[in-house]
Write a structure and sequence with these properties.
Elements (H helix, E strand, L loop, with lengths): L31 H8 L7 H18 L12 H22 L5 H16 L3 E7 L5 E7 L9 E3 L5 H6 L9 E2 L5 E3 L7 H8 L13 E9 L2 E10 L7 H36 L3 E6 L4 E4 L1 H6 L4 H4 L10 H15 L5 E5 L10 E9 L5 E10 H4 L1
Helix pairs in contact: 2-3, 3-4, 3-7, 4-7
């Protein structure tokens, strides 16, 4: 009870965007046991995790003497080692964004800034769908640094729009099965492709012939939710290894979209619950009250200030919770909608009441809360 030691989460932070060498990235007979032990368990003891964070410290020291290298571009020997350290540091900082508590729009801007700085390219831009299926556009380049807010736009008619629609076929670009495409000399593309490429309104690099460009799809649960574009004046910049690394990095953007959808989904649900004239409570997966209506406060004589953040069994008598609420909650979190009619001790009505438990599904389809509605039987009939 009095132990103030730091609690270590049970899931490795790299599970959100695993690196190529992570055990969970390629589950097979050789590493599935390690994935169980480390990726979803004692990740602090994992050699890969330890190496990354030691690399993070090394890069912090290296920055003071400017001993680092861009995360893209062909390298060998000691320079290759500095590049890999820079990649690991970029991944760590990108994952840190997800735990920062900032808005999804700010996460997008900060992510683009990180990529531009670590890749040392001229421009990084993105189209990303938010929780309302609005398409946002934002870019960061050398002159603008990291200024400017994302803006809502229509579906673009450029190559970025085609990638959002599912990708390109026989485009003349180099490509991966993931849908990523790139060219190391845009001057060699066909006139039609250059026109499509240069018609992008989310890029300021459309008036310079030649150079390298990469367009990387952002996917969430099999759905295209965005595209990341990287422009550089340098020809022959990207290697296959670079594109694979950058494609893995886009998983952070996927999580930004997921966060945005979850926040908007929850906001809509809270708005609907607040309008209900009944005594309503929202309970999360830990049995903690997350929201109550004014009717609930007056009915059960438990103000929001007193009840929110507490377990449901702290509001209702222990016998009522054990005999009625707990069994129903367990089934509701399994996806069932349940109702029970009877006299519930502790309420403001002496008449028979009806209790309805409805699972609240997240944007990904899992139950992350249950809505309990209490009302007189004649109103709920």
């Amino acid at each position: 009870m009095g132990d103030k030691s730091k609690q270590i989460p049970s899931v490795c932070p790299f599970m959100k965007a695993p690196m190529e060498e992570c055990y969970c990235r390629q589950l097979n007979s050789d590493n599935i046991e390690k994935a169980f032990l480390y990726c979803s368990g004692d990740y602090a003891s994992c050699a890969i995790y330890q190496r990354v964070f030691k690399a993070d410290e090394a890069m912090a020291e290296a920055e003071q003497v400017e001993d680092r290298h861009a995360v893209v571009g062909l390298t060998t020997g000691a320079v290759r080692g500095r590049q890999l350290l820079s990649r690991q540091r970029l991944m760590v900082q990108a994952l840190t964004l997800l735990e920062s508590g900032i808005s999804p729009q700010q996460m997008l801007q900060d992510f683009l800034c990180l990529v531009r700085r670590y890749a040392e390219v001229d421009e990084v831009s993105a189209y990303i769908f938010d929780g309302d299926s609005n398409l946002y556009a934002q870019r960061v380049n050398c002159s603008e640094e990291c200024q400017g807010q994302a803006r809502v736009v229509q579906q673009p008619g450029c190559l970025c729009g085609q990638i959002l629609d599912g990708g390109l076929k026989d485009s003349g670009f180099s490509s991966l099965e993931s849908g990523a495409i790139w060219a190391n000399d845009t001057a060699r593309l066909s006139a039609a492709l250059r026109k499509k490429l240069d018609s992008c309104t989310n890029s300021a690099s459309t008036d310079r012939p030649g150079g390298s460009v990469a367009l990387l799809p952002v996917s969430l649960a099999g759905e295209r939710v965005g595209v990341l574009r990287i422009n550089a004046r340098t020809r022959n910049l990207f290697t296959l290894d670079d594109i694979r690394f950058l494609s893995g990095l886009t998983s952070v953007l996927s999580l930004v979209v997921k966060r945005s959808r979850e926040e908007r989904h929850r906001a809509y649900a809270d708005m609907i619950v607040a309008q209900l004239p009944y005594a309503v409570a929202v309970v999360d997966a830990n049995g903690v009250l997350r929201k109550v209506t004014g009717r609930f406060e007056s009915c059960f004589k438990a103000s929001a200030a007193e009840s929110l953040g507490k377990k449901l069994d702290a509001v209702f008598p222990a016998s009522v919770y054990r005999q009625h609420l707990k069994p129903m909650l367990e089934r509701a979190f399994g996806g069932e909608t349940l109702s029970q009619t009877g006299v519930l001790p502790g309420g403001c009505w002496s008449a028979t009441m009806r209790l309805v438990l409805s699972p609240f599904f997240s944007a990904e389809g899992r139950v992350d809360a249950v809505i309990l509605a209490f009302y007189p039987c004649e109103e709920g009939a």
